[in-house]
Design a protein that fits this description.
Layout (H helix, E strand, L loop, with lengths): L3 E6 L6 H12 L3 E3 H10 L3 H12 L5 H12 L7 E5 L5 H13 L6 E6 L2 H9 L1 E4 L5 E3 L18 E2 L6 H15 L1 H8 L3 E5 L4 H20 L3
Parallel strand pairs: 1-3, 1-4, 2-3, 4-8
Antiparallel strand pairs: 5-6, 5-7
Helix pairs in contact: 1-9, 2-3, 4-5, 6-7
The structure holds adenosine monophosphate.
């Protein structure tokens, strides 16, 4: 079977992380989330983290050259031989072009881009109530998925915080950045015939089901059965 190179696309708060982790279990492919990689670097105070933090706190994107190297290294690794799931990358046209170039060098290409569609109003509701555990990044929501004890992570007992970039003015900035820089990728990938759109304003399980169905249909198509 050819390898499966997947990209999850959608605004911040559309559920890419939740769905990416589920696909990661289903498909047994490595899952690379640039936001998680960068937050880890900020926590560990590495050079990468130090240079990325100011952009992230403002809701801006970190420069393309920083992020492209990070991803290229992972895609080219042994664990990604059968494919990968990308979340949060690419986020700009130059990043998408760099990804295409890297894959082409390896005789591969993007197999599918799964767009999780969610409105701006829903993003503001979701991110504004999100609480993230300080130690390991476990995610809760004050209304939709509250922890058993307010302000404490159910899983590891560490404090739950509002991510700096989940503060209201930064959420608005992240959405503006998404529309300006990332949304052009919808037509970029649609033109290449790999875009699949999934309605994201539903229960997470329903979104997962639709993603599974979409991937199954794609597989049938590529096997020549449809
Ligand atoms: P996320 O968790 O995917 O929303 O990412 C959090 C923040 O990390 C973003 O607001 C950006 O500042 C930065 N970031 C993550 N992925 C990228 C990327 N592909 N290009 C540039 N900046 C990124």
């Amino acid at each position: 079977m050819p390898e499966l190179n997947l990209v999850l696309l959608g605004p911040p708060g559309s559920g890419k992380g939740t769905q990416g982790e589920r696909l990661n279990e289903d498909l047994r492919l490595p899952y690379y989330a640039t936001g998680d990689i960068l937050r880890g670097a900020v926590r560990d105070e590495t050079e990468l983290g130090k240079s990325a933090k100011e952009y992230m706190d403002r809701g801006d994107l970190v420069p393309d050259e920083v992020i492209v190297g990070l991803i290229a290294e992972r895609i080219d690794s042994e664990e990604a031989r059968d494919g990968f799931i990308l979340d949060g990358f690419p986020r700009t046209t130059p990043q998408a072009e760099a990804l295409d170039a890297k894959l082409e060098e390896m005789g591969r290409s993007v197999g599918a881009v799964l767009l999780i569609d969610v409105s701006d109003d829903e993003v503001v509701k979701r991110l504004g109530g999100r609480r993230t555990c300080e130690a390991n990044g476990h995610v809760f929501h004050v209304d939709f998925n509250p922890p058993k004890v307010e302000g404490v992570c159910d899983i590891d007992g560490s404090p739950l915080l509002v991510r700096d970039d989940d503060k209201p003015d930064v959420i608005r900035k992240r959405l503006a950045t998404y529309h300006e820089k990332t949304e052009p990728l919808v037509s970029y990938y649609d033109d290449r015939g790999v875009l699949r759109r999934v309605e994201g304003e539903r229960e997470p399980d329903e979104v997962t089901e639709e993603l599974r169905r979409t991937l199954a249909t794609m597989k049938l198509e590529s096997d020549g059965a449809v």
